Amino acid sequence: MASALTDKLSRLVKEMRGQARITESNVQDMLREVRMALLEADVALPVVRDFIARVKDKALGQEVMGSLSPGQALVGIVNRELAATMGQGVSDINLAAQPPAVILMAGLQGAGKTTTTAKLAKHLIEKRKKKVLTVSGDVYRPAAIEQLKTVTAQAGAEWFPSTPDQKPVDIARAAIDYARKHFFDVLLVDTAGRLAIDEALMNEIKELHAVLKPVETLFVVDAMQGQDAVNTAKAFKEALPLTGIILTKTDGDSRGGAALSVRQITGAPIKFSGTSEKIDGLEVFDAERHAGRILG
Ligand code: GDP
């Protein structure tokens, strides 16, 4: 646990040795440090406030067990609360649907949707032994359709063609039809992303959702996005019943505070994290490890 502490926190932990209880006065400095650490990790301010209030509630008046100091006890509470907020032990992709189980990928352009679609295809083929079809509903960028074709081949899955003159909902219907006739277990649907939230895009993905009736609607979000992740997450949550989050680019040098913000705003579990640009760079999300990283 010591590795999950800033130097300042460690010092405060030491200073609190010998005190038997966590009290308003002895945790104030600690909580201020935790707050700073979260803000430095780019967790959004309202999320930080909520989090600190919850930790304080849990901590105040708590007897300190055995050899722990109130500082150490508080750090334990902070770590547990962080991991709990981010949803430790969440399950794999839900495929409990009449085949094909449809998975809808949502998120901003550049978040890593297309890459992650292929990573998931590979995961479902190798770990879940499924027959997987992918399709792109990004009719605005022919290059995105081609990109999905390329990465789908790398994943060993099958790709369903689409063209820029088609409507996304028509592509969706045709892909489901094909998947049914050819006994695919899973259909992964990549979607258009814009650089910022825009109403037309949101309406389009809502329509797609209505047609596809996906068993999973996954929000793909860049861990490097920082504070902006909150607004993106809010907009997608309002538009779609999100069932999970995939946090990409966790191999970057950000402390990944976006994880906490996005998780709290959407209420959806973070299922996987992207750990490289490569097709096998996908891991089941480890909330505890990520909590340590956020604390710095
Ligand atoms: P989309 O616009 O949302 O479909 O995003 P792309 O899948 O095209 O990804 C955008 C960029 O991010 C590409 O250069 C990807 O290689 C890169 N990328 C995606 N996921 C990860 C990841 O987990 N780690 C790293 N380092 N790069 C990633």
Automatic annotation (TrEMBL):
EC top class named in words: hydrolase
Q: Where is the Signal recognition particle SRP54 helical bundle domain?
A: 1-86
What EC number(s) has UniProt assigned to this enzyme? 3.6.5.4
Main localization (coarse): cytoplasm
Copy the domain comment: Composed of three domains: the N-terminal N domain, which is responsible for interactions with the ribosome, the central G domain, which binds GTP, and the C-terminal M domain, which binds the RNA and the signal sequence of the RNC.
Span of domain SRP54-type proteins GTP-binding: 100-296
The record's subcellular location field reads: Cytoplasm
Question: Subunit structure, briefly?
Answer: Part of the signal recognition particle protein translocation system, which is composed of SRP and FtsY. SRP is a ribonucleoprotein composed of Ffh and a 4.5S RNA molecule.
Q: Where does GTP bind?
A: 107-114, 190-194, 248-251
Q: What is the top-level taxon of the source organism? A: Bacteria
Family statement drawn from the similarity comment of this UniProt entry: Belongs to the GTP-binding SRP family. SRP54 subfamily.
Function comment: Involved in targeting and insertion of nascent membrane proteins into the cytoplasmic membrane. Binds to the hydrophobic signal sequence of the ribosome-nascent chain (RNC) as it emerges from the ribosomes. The SRP-RNC complex is then targeted to the cytoplasmic membrane where it interacts with the SRP receptor FtsY. Interaction with FtsY leads to the transfer of the RNC complex to the Sec translocase for insertion into the membrane, the hydrolysis of GTP by both Ffh and FtsY, and the dissociation of the SRP-FtsY complex into the individual components.
Q: What protein does this entry describe?
A: Signal recognition particle protein
User: Could you say which residues of the full protein are shown?
Assistant: 1 to 296 of 452
Reactions listed under catalytic activity? GTP + H2O = GDP + phosphate + H(+)
Q: Provide the AAA+ ATPase domain boundaries.
A: 99-295
Keywords assigned by UniProt, alphabetized: Cytoplasm, GTP-binding, Hydrolase, Nucleotide-binding, Ribonucleoprotein, RNA-binding, Signal recognition particle
